[in-house]
Amino acid sequence: MSNAFILQQSAAFGPGILTGILRDFGIPVQVRKLYAGDELPTDLDELRFLVVLGGPQRVADVGSDQSPFLAKEVELLKRLIAVDRPFLGIGLGAQLLAHAAGAKVYPNARPGKTPADPMDPAPEFGWHPVMFPFPGGTEPMVLGIVDGSPMFHWHVDTFDLPRLPPPPGLPPNVPPAPTGSALLSSSKLCKNQVFRFKNRLFGFQFHFELTAPDIDAIVSAGRDELAKLFGPDAEKQIRYDTEKNLHRYNRLGERIVRNFVQFTKTY
Fold this sequence. Notes:
Elements: E1 3-8, H1 18-24, E2 29-33, E3 47-52, H2 69-83, E4 87-90, H3 92-100, E5 105-107, E6 109-110, E7 120-121, E8 124-130, E9 149-155, E10 157-159, E11 181-185, E12 194-197, E13 201-204, H4 212-221, H5 223-230, H6 234-265
């Protein structure tokens, strides 16, 4: 039987609830810790689907000596995109999917106070509600997740939605070709939260997979960055919000994982 491969890019960003739920479905799971030197899978025939987790790296780090595995991941993702093999990218994993599909990845920002002002950086950390605009709310991948659901965010960058290349020789003055992508979820700070590309490739900017120890590890590792961006009380607020939201959050996260497994089984 083919395996589900989970690529972990940082010790702090683990697979959380993913491995247990996938094994409940009888799916063999291999977690590859790329930051520790594990190899990426190369044979697509042994790959039932691929999950790429988050991490502190950025798409701008692709090709750097510090995280040499990022470039290899992008090449693997390009192969998956070509054959529309089931894929789930979370956080950095979603950004890598967008990048591999040819879309731009760049710092998240919002307009300044006046049109003449430069854009203000808008990193998204901690707990924020997400929305599911039509047709996103009708997608099987996010069934059961309603507007205002609290999700955990940890990202500086955002991305444009990828687009399929236009057919060759397309005559002028005809309707634009399908993009191949669908926006499934947004947040107040970041429009492109969840997207589907082609049929079976999904990117989630927010995190739905984390357990309480996972969130604690991420917040602890990012303590200095939190204080710099949001002030000395930011960590305390996130921990308070975690305690308040965790039960519902884990229930919603389990639903998303089950949606993914059930949806990809239909192909």
